[in-house]
Amino acid sequence: MTTRTLPAAAYEKLTASVARDTGDRRGAALWIHAAGLVRHAQEHGLLPDSSPAPGADGLRKSLEILASCHPALAALTDPRVLPVWSQMLGETAWESINTFWERHPTLEDEHRIDGYALGDTYQLLSDDARKGRALCQTPPWIARLLLRLSLEPAMDEWGPTSTRMIDPACGTGHIVMAAFHMARVPPIHGRGSAPAAHGRQALERALAAVTGIDLDPYAAALTAYRLLASCATILRTPLERLPSSWPVNVAAADSLLARDEPLLAAGTYHACVANPPYITPKDPVVRDRVRAAYPQVASGKYSLALPFTALMLDHLAVPGGFVAQLTSNSFMKREFGRRYVTEFLPRFDARWIIDTSGAYIPGHGTPTCILVHRARPPVGDTVTVIRGNRGEPHVPEDPARGLVWRAIEDAVDSRLAWDRFQAGADLARRDGDPTH
């Protein structure tokens, strides 16, 4: 897979230029990104062959066609989600957008057309999402590790056709997409055999297995588009030919407070996986509402990452479900984390604590760690801890192959291999023991 990454300054320059026409940066970012989304669909054969009229009217017509392909895409015609329906755009601004996407055609090649780069592009374009809601996409190598430590063992335990996962802060869907592919092609070890990966049944099953929720309605719509675009690509068919009955479990909601959202029903998920926002809520009303809803973890100038942990462990996960998150390690150092560490986390079965503060993670300036728990009281007396000794000596050309990250992955591989060996030995011992 190759993607062409543009410097942030290129997006900044374009957004500033279009904002002079729209009057606001949020509207400019969404005009630009919606045009990129439509081009992605057109270039990869996901829209019908008929070409819409050029210009802003043509963009609106294409969005209407996309929205009609599946109920999960209806938000693309909602003016509360996309200002293209309520905001005029001048010819000069449109030409700037059109020229940009002609020079940088969706930033992906034929080997990966599931909209991965579109997710990163939205983060770069939207100040509102990046600064206001702390949108920071999870790199694919980190998403894979989080899922290996949560969704994969959940599928081993509950079976690949029964397991459900959720990312309650999904952004534009990087973790959800990785989970979709894992659910579509389950690991071959564990309980049961892996189902077929390419048929319609496999795709429908994988869609039903994954859920994403985000506060940003456009990010949620983009996640839904990416799931459906992947299905259409695998089947080599336009989006309009996908069954409208196929489940796309993506919603725009405040996961911490929206208890009336059906996808946030208690005790639903075998794996909860997230890279939640690390910020403190800026709105004092929201800050107080979250504090009241999560008094066990939201004290002082708390990080939102702590209520998200409580949401997943106390509410969303089935008994014994796996909860994995990449999170800020600030709770280890500051007063707001005291009750979280001494009272809340000890109630649950800690499985992994991984220091990722020395790894180079693009876009993540905050020191982080990975926490993996099971939603049950502690079992046994062992927690696997991977401690960091030093950071990267220099910025790696490929962050996924940085020295620190490779060392983390090697340590995880070694531990998982030992665990599988020990489980196999225990099973063989039981099978050979006539008393069992």
Question: Short summary of the structure?
Answer:
By secondary structure, this protein is of the alpha/beta class.
Structure keywords:
Rossmann fold, 2 domains, alpha/beta, 436 residues, 8-stranded mixed beta sheet, 15 helices, globular
How helical, in percent, are the residues?
40-55%
Which class best fits the helix and strand makeup? alpha/beta
Biggest pleated-sheet summary: 8 strands, mixed
- What's the mean pLDDT score? 88
The low-confidence parts are: none
Outline the secondary-structure elements.
Blueprint: H1 8-22, H2 25-43, H3 55-69, H4 91-103, H5 116-125, H6 127-132, H7 140-148, H8 151-158, E1 165-167, H9 174-184, H10 200-209, E2 210-214, H11 217-235, E3 249-252, E4 269-274, H12 284-293, H13 305-316, E5 317-328, H14 338-344, E6 349-355, E7 368-374, E8 384-386, H15 403-431
Parallel strand pairs: 1-2, 1-4, 2-3, 4-5, 6-8
Antiparallel strand pairs: 5-7, 6-7
Helix pairs in contact: 1-2, 1-4, 2-3, 2-5, 5-11, 7-9, 9-10
